[in-house]
TrEMBL record:
Keyword Cytoplasm: no
Cleavable signal peptide: none
Keywords on record: Transferase
GO molecular function: glycosyltransferase activity
Name of the featured protein: Glycosyltransferase family 4 protein
Domain Glycosyl transferase family: 209-357
One Pfam assignment: Glyco_transf_4
Domain Glycosyltransferase subfamily 4-like N-terminal: 94-202
Coiled coil: none
PANTHER family: SULFOQUINOVOSYL TRANSFERASE SQD2, TEICHURONIC ACID BIOSYNTHESIS GLYCOSYLTRANSFERASE TUAC-RELATED
Species of origin: Lacibacter luteus
Amino acid sequence: MKILWLCSWYPNSADEFDGDFIERHAKAVTLYQQVDVIHVVQNKHLLKGTTSIKKEERKSSNLNASIYFLPLPDTGFEFFNVYAFNKRYQSFYKQQIEQYIAANGKPDLVHVHVPVKAGLTAVLMHQKYNVPFVVTEHSSAYFEHIPENYFSRNRYFRFVTKQTFKQAAAVSSVSNWLIKRLQSLFDIQQTKLIRNVVDTTRFYPQQHMNERKRFIHVSMMHPLKNVSGILQALAILQQQTTSWEMWFVGPPSKENLQLANELGLNENICWKGALPYNQVADAMRSADALLHFSNYENLPCVINEALCCGLPVIASNVGGIAELLNASNGVLIAPGDTKALANAMNEFLSGKVQYNQQEIAAAAEKEFGPQIIGEQISNWYKQVLKKK
């Protein structure tokens, strides 16, 4: 099979974390076949300072990714800037597709990651070349309570999203929670659950003897992750016991640093900052439990990674998280309930709840390992093409 990926998000030199989970999916598939990726950066913040078209290539075994940066138009009016960029984006993407087909022939299947904006290119390819495509959606923004949700976006965004889902041969996501929501909103032919992949050569259980039990939180510290809520829960926990330490991995905000200081938590907290992926894995393996207290979410990779390290997870019951956690590997609490979070941490520290690190890791590897996910995606392609 010749597979072409069109990605709306993908890691690049301006942001190594932009859709890094998509790249890990791609690498998993390359265990079974070659994958070509075309990504045209659409994030305006990442395009600032771009004065001419810039191309990057990220290559590894069986994976060829071409990433393009386009100059931002400046008409003096934001509306016309957006309109001009969308036109330039689609025109450039079309040109890259034509060049790709001229050099490699038509792909058997196109795989879109996130409908806007790459989905429209797949739709046009399907119409012109009769190449079927599938879609993987990673965003949780299909619920009205989530900021900048699908319903609040402009007409172009909603049109591209609808057309992408309508004409896709199949749609996948990492959670059943999101799949069911997409089915309720759009005309979707068939669906497939495919979890986020974990690099199990980095994330695996490791024995350690911390002087104090170590909690860890890993994220980019965006407001949705509710780091302030974790700090408030830690303040409650500190009144009960100080036999713990907390590592935050990710770029801390000034507000959260100030809040930690005001709550008197500095002696128990270590702000590790943003770390390279391999160092994130090192930090995860050294911890005893993961805290994840998001206000809303789909199904974050960090939970899969923690489970592969054998860590129990204490998380808010949002999105598809409940699909992964049970009494054997973690605790679910109501979003925003800082007292419940503090109580769950205290019960873990007191030994009232116990977990088997090796069993957690073994079960997680069977579900999230690269060989498992890569085979699932490759077989999905075969099933889709067989029905066409």
